[in-house]
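FORM 12-B: Structure-to-Sequence Request
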């Protein structure tokens, strides 16, 4: 038997732009994705801390170092620049492995430039050094 567990989480990712004229998705700075191991085109659940809305979409990489978090297409109606998001992905894990499971999470601040906290990291020191602490 398998259970669905949190795999990755970006907490307090600040929306930097919203573009209606795009097909859809959430564009995230490639380095933000790498911080938690989020894959390009991976299905994500997004919660908007400003209004409580939740929606599903997929992650696409934005240029590294831009700290971009952009709502595209229909999702552009679900937030605005300055809103704080929780971006989550999930995994199917065997019940026997669930007790030892630990998600990779990062808490951001200062327009996605500062790393407040990182849990269960599996990233290089070079990547971590690109974020203010």
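FORM 12-B RESPONSE
SEQUENCE OUT:
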């Amino acid at each position: 038997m398998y259970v669905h567990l949190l795999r990755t989480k970006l907490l307090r990712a600040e929306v930097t732009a919203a573009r209606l004229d795009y097909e859809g998705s959430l564009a995230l700075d490639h380095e933000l994705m790498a911080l938690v191991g989020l894959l390009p085109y991976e299905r994500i659940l997004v919660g908007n801390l400003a209004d409580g809305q939740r929606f599903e979409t997929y992650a696409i990489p934005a240029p590294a170092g831009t700290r971009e978090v952009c709502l595209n297409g229909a999702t552009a109606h679900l937030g605005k620049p300055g809103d704080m998001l929780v971006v989550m992905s999930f995994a199917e894990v065997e019940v026997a492995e669930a007790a030892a499971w630990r998600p990779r999470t990062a808490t951001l601040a200062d327009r996605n430039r500062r790393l407040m906290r990182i849990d269960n990291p599996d990233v290089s020191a070079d990547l971590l050094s690109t974020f203010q602490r």
